């Protein structure tokens, strides 16, 4: 089996590319980072340090790469591969959608009638379905029937903490032991692939929300409260008892929504939260607060890790003081190198918290929740 993977970054090399290559799939990475691509083309392998109580260095082989700036090379890959995966970040999906559309048109024009499956591996609810809608926008109507018949767009949930590596080797990546990749099997076209490490489900929404609204909700609040307390890494922040108490309480509020919505076992969900708190404190990973706090506008969005759980607590009448506090903490997050952090702060300075929050979260301006976030912000400011 051949795979084309967009994004040779942390998750691309450290998780999805590794898992597929380990399963005997030939992986070709596509990326815009010239140095990374040249190194992959020359070496056709790279090291992955899996760190837990022991350190194991695995060598990933059977890989190649194409530079995404070489459009024709990428189109040729799309026209001939069996599986396409992405780990580029939600904001980049719209960019690669255009390339995918061109590649699918070429594939159909060349008469390739074999099945192709596409899986976006991003922190986003139904990211592949979003990608599909974008691809179809760029594709002439005359191709749509063939795409519907031959191309599967399968949504997935992806979980492994992979911070950028500080190695001198540009290809080396350091990952935690834990990993989970769950894919919606009902959306595949042709045979559902049997790949070790790729779990299949008919109930993807439950798993994607469980992951995003537990791990990522807690991770983000750790980052914002941690930054406010002056910490630089997630581990430092979560080892502060006051931060940990707030983060855990917010995860429990969000968890209560998940238990009610999807029928998860309450005890098992409590254990899931504890395990994640342990992963945040992993002494073998150095995960900067700025990586986890990045792109606050995306993360304040109505379908993302702060607002969506908050909406769930409102729907079920569940307490939400800690989710509110986490949202308030986002307004203290300063990062001059992150355009979204700069934009958020600029609007906050110009229009105030209520209007800024209502704008990005789509919560009603006059809602109690928006007023409570502002009150929580003032309380944090004077603490
Ligand atoms: N790192 C983690 O712990 C983790 C865990 C689970 C999910 N994720 C998700 O995985 C996705 C990728 O995260 P990451 O941490 O690997 O980010 P990353 O920045 O390490 O990797 C993204 C890669 O995409 C490349 N890229 C950018 N534009 C591109 C384009 N137009 N074409 C091809 N490649 C392009 C970048 O050069 C980079 O190498 C995100 O959606 C993230 O939320 C990350
Ligand atoms: O990748 P983001 O920016 O959506 O979120 C930052 C982290 O919370 C995230 O990358 C986690 O490390 C990951 O989701 C763990 O599976």
TrEMBL record:
<dbReference type="InterPro" id="IPR000669">
    <property type="entry name" value="Mannitol_DH"/>
</dbReference>
<dbReference type="GO" id="GO:0005829">
    <property type="term" value="C:cytosol"/>
</dbReference>
<feature type="binding site">
    <location>
        <begin position="3"/>
        <end position="14"/>
    </location>
    <ligand>
        <name>NAD(+)</name>
    </ligand>
</feature>
<dbReference type="InterPro" id="IPR023028">
    <property type="entry name" value="Mannitol_1_phos_5_DH"/>
</dbReference>
<dbReference type="GO" id="GO:0019592">
    <property type="term" value="P:mannitol catabolic process"/>
</dbReference>
<feature type="domain" description="Mannitol dehydrogenase C-terminal">
    <location>
        <begin position="203"/>
        <end position="380"/>
    </location>
</feature>
<dbReference type="GO" id="GO:0008926">
    <property type="term" value="F:mannitol-1-phosphate 5-dehydrogenase activity"/>
</dbReference>
<feature type="domain" description="Mannitol dehydrogenase N-terminal">
    <location>
        <begin position="1"/>
        <end position="196"/>
    </location>
</feature>
<dbReference type="InterPro" id="IPR008927">
    <property type="entry name" value="6-PGluconate_DH-like_C_sf"/>
</dbReference>
<keyword id="KW-0560">Oxidoreductase</keyword>
<dbReference type="InterPro" id="IPR013328">
    <property type="entry name" value="6PGD_dom2"/>
</dbReference>
<dbReference type="InterPro" id="IPR013131">
    <property type="entry name" value="Mannitol_DH_N"/>
</dbReference>
<dbReference type="InterPro" id="IPR036291">
    <property type="entry name" value="NAD(P)-bd_dom_sf"/>
</dbReference>
<dbReference type="Pfam" id="PF08125">
    <property type="entry name" value="Mannitol_dh_C"/>
</dbReference>
<dbReference type="InterPro" id="IPR013118">
    <property type="entry name" value="Mannitol_DH_C"/>
</dbReference>
<keyword id="KW-0520">NAD</keyword>
<dbReference type="InterPro" id="IPR023027">
    <property type="entry name" value="Mannitol_DH_CS"/>
</dbReference>
<dbReference type="Pfam" id="PF01232">
    <property type="entry name" value="Mannitol_dh"/>
</dbReference>
<protein>
    <recommendedName>
        <fullName>Mannitol-1-phosphate 5-dehydrogenase</fullName>
        <ecNumber>1.1.1.17</ecNumber>
    </recommendedName>
</protein>
<comment type="similarity">
    <text>Belongs to the mannitol dehydrogenase family.</text>
</comment>
